[in-house]
Amino acid sequence: MFEQFKSGLLYTAIGKYSNVVVQLSVQVVLSNLLLPAEFGIVATVNVFLVFFQLLADIGIGPAIIQNKDLTRSEINSIFGFSMYIAIVLGIIFVFLGYPISWFYDNSVFISISRILGICVFFYGALVVPQSLLLRMKNFKLVNFTTVGSALISGIISISLAFAGFSYYSIIIGNTVRAMVMFIIFYNQTGTKFKFKIDFEPLKKIFAFSRNQFLFNFINYFSRNLDNLLIGGTISQAALGYYDKAYTVSLYPNQVLTGLITSVIHPIMSDYVDQKEKIKFVYLRLSSILAMIGMPLSVFLVFNARDIILVFGEQWLPSVPTLQILACTVWIQMILSSTGGIFQSGNRTDLLLLSGVLSSVFNISGILTGIFLGRIEYVALLLLCAFSLNFIQANYLLMVKLFESNLLEFFPVLFKPMLLAIMQAVVFLLLPEFEMHFLIALIIKGVIFAVVWLIGIVITGEFRRIKKEIMGNR
């Protein structure tokens, strides 16, 4: 298992880190070329795009990874079914621009939806080939393709932005990315399209995919309702500021948690009957993620202004929102790993229950914040919601899945809290640097790294990690 994790983590690390560097670089350039209101338009339409991607998947992807008994012929049948879904959803999205334009009183969504209809089709079509590659643990191809498509998309988006294509530069870039990923995944898996739909393979994955889809469906609304409503009730510019802060707060998840969660389900699904082994992996992962996430949350709170300035001074209104959302970073890092653990334990029913509870907390927080009329209130109430979600998700894992108790989980947070306190003390005492913000940010980043290294040595975690690595060679 350790060798599989090492191999998976290696290629996933290369892919994830390269992808984040590419996306962040593209975002920095585009943020200085486009206005917050233009980003707000893209953020609005992305809410619908993500929803249609969810509909295109309907839980098929994780079900293919989990079910080791599916034959190649059965997978081809499932692929044919998913292609029909992708075609139908793509056509629907083409016409979706009309009601969206009416709701937001902006006709630009009509032309945007026509382009994104193509994007929806390709995202739906690549579900089965990509899941098949993950099932085969071909992390190298998946991650290299993801990075390559992001690079091509970024070059196209930046070129079009310079040419004055406004928000269309991002829309077209995303569409090209989906197309490139599908072409490569499809050609590399040898997946065949079957015109006749065979429902027998679909029945084999129905129970798993149903719960997975329902979780994704519910989780979608709880995660995207803020973007959906802020643009229509406050303003597109406010949505742009909020989305920028939220996107920045998600980067640690993409860089760190995404690296691990991408390989959890494909590898741990082989140990579905060994709950103790899955529990051990989860507790250790939570400890590591908290050790990184808690100090990082502190760093983001104290340095939010310098980080936002990287995108340009026009984004400074995002700073208070980022400072609040920064407090959720460590929580989201741990929560994002729970889905793969539920899947590995073959308990998507518990995953669904966790999703329902999360939605209740998230939606309540979002609606209350929007009613109060400020994006800072939305962020603050989301912090409260994520905290409640952290408790309920871990209760379901520890008590219901592992048949243990919640008290067994909380000790893994003790040392990470000490590391976070050390960072808070240092940054509270640190004087303001009278220099360019980028130089100041780099210096503060070095200070953060040094304090963190001292912290893991003092707490004994450095010795433990070294022992784990050396002991598994």
UniProtKB/TrEMBL annotation:
Localization terms from the record: Cell membrane
Bilayer disposition of the protein: Multi-pass membrane protein
CDD domains: MATE_tuaB_like
Entry's Gene Ontology cellular component terms: plasma membrane
Predominant subcellular localization, coarse grouping: membrane
Keywords, comma-separated and alphabetical: Cell membrane, Membrane, Transmembrane, Transmembrane helix
Segments crossing the lipid bilayer: 39-65, 77-96, 108-129, 141-161, 167-186, 281-302, 322-343, 350-371, 377-397, 409-430, 436-460
Superkingdom, natural source: Bacteria
InterPro entries found in the cross-reference section: Poly_Biosynth_Transport (IPR050833)
Family: Belongs to the polysaccharide synthase family.
Protein name as it appears in the record: Lipopolysaccharide biosynthesis protein
Species this chain originates from: Marinilactibacillus psychrotolerans
